[in-house]
Amino acid sequence: MNLLLWNSNICFSYLTPAGIAVGTQYGMKNQTAIREFILLGFSYGVQVQTLLYVIFLATYMVTITENAVIIFVVKRNHHLQKPMYYFLGNLSFLEICYVSVTLPRLLFGFRSQSMTISFSCCMTQLYFFISLMCTECVILAVMAYDRYLAVCHPLRYPAIMTHKLCFQLLILSWAGGFSISLVKVSLISQLTFCGPHIMNHFFCDISPVLNLSCTDMSLAETVDFVLALVILLIPLLIIVFSYCCILLTISCMPSVQGRRKTFSTCTSHLAVVIIFFSATLFMYARPRRIHPSKLNKIVSVFYAVFTPALNPLIYCLRNKEVKEILRKTIGTSCFAHQ
């Protein structure tokens, strides 16, 4: 290991076991390379933290249960063996992973009162969080394309949206999301981070991490901003185009009942899209490091914690087919236990 002794003005260096000198510098500031961060999280009193712990724990358990139920119902019911529900099952699996990246660590911090996270764990958390968020962007666009084909080209829909194409679109979504995140996190991890090592956030996100860097980060910031625009705007344009075509097709339908019934198959997805992209565009489609503030933390809680819990409710409450099958499944289970 290199032995470094820092003074307020002088940095003395020692030789490594291999005999390589690290270097001696004069007139540098009092700063050392960071090996761990302190997440401020929610720095309130004990009573407030206890309340937050209960709320986040309940939200986590509800999120896991809701999405697991959707995966189970879609997998077991032959009436839901359709592309739309195939994508919904994947989205539910993604939401379970998404919320599991941040909440368990936050809950552990509430219980142990230790919010320290190592540099490697921070980069790992950042990588998986960004990967899953990017993947969700693409999956939502794929689901919009599926609705476009179902509404605008109903006769050709079964021939186009085959099981093979569904599988290929999902592979593209997951591979694209994780690849873009790999580029982002690789550049960020190569930056030098200096004191103070206190992060005003409850998990390792891009902007809070960049705020701790003490080296030139213009390349990392530029690449991050460009890739954020690519992964956010391209899926969003696909979604907007799909729904413009859907609305145009619905407006040409002769009966009001037919228009209402057709549009009802899209409302749940549209609601999820609006909630998800509103928060992510606010947080990530900005060309500078975001100054840490309470507003950013609140928005992060909304899209990282509560949105994965809301999505299954939106899909179940707005989708008559899913509601009916859930009612039958729960009724059958209750009858079997009597």
Q: What share of residues is helical?
A: 55-70%
In percent, how much strand structure appears in the residues?
5-15%
> How would the global form be characterised?
globular
Task: Walk across the major sheet and give the strand order.
Answer: 1-2-3
The number of distinct β-strands equals 6
Mean pLDDT: 81
Classify the secondary structure makeup into a structural class. mainly alpha
The low-confidence parts are: 1-31
Radius of gyration: 24 Å
Q: Summarize the helix and strand pattern as letters.
A: EEEEHHEHHHEHHHHHH
Number of helices in the DSSP assignment: 11
N-end to C-end Cα span: 66 Å
Major sheet size, sense and barrel closure: 3 strands, antiparallel
Report what the structure shows.
The longest helix has about 35 residues. The radius of gyration is 24 Å and the shape is globular. The N terminus is likely disordered. It has eleven helices and six strands. The chain is mostly helical.
Features:
single chain, 338 residues, mainly alpha, three-stranded antiparallel sheet, 11 helices, 5% strand
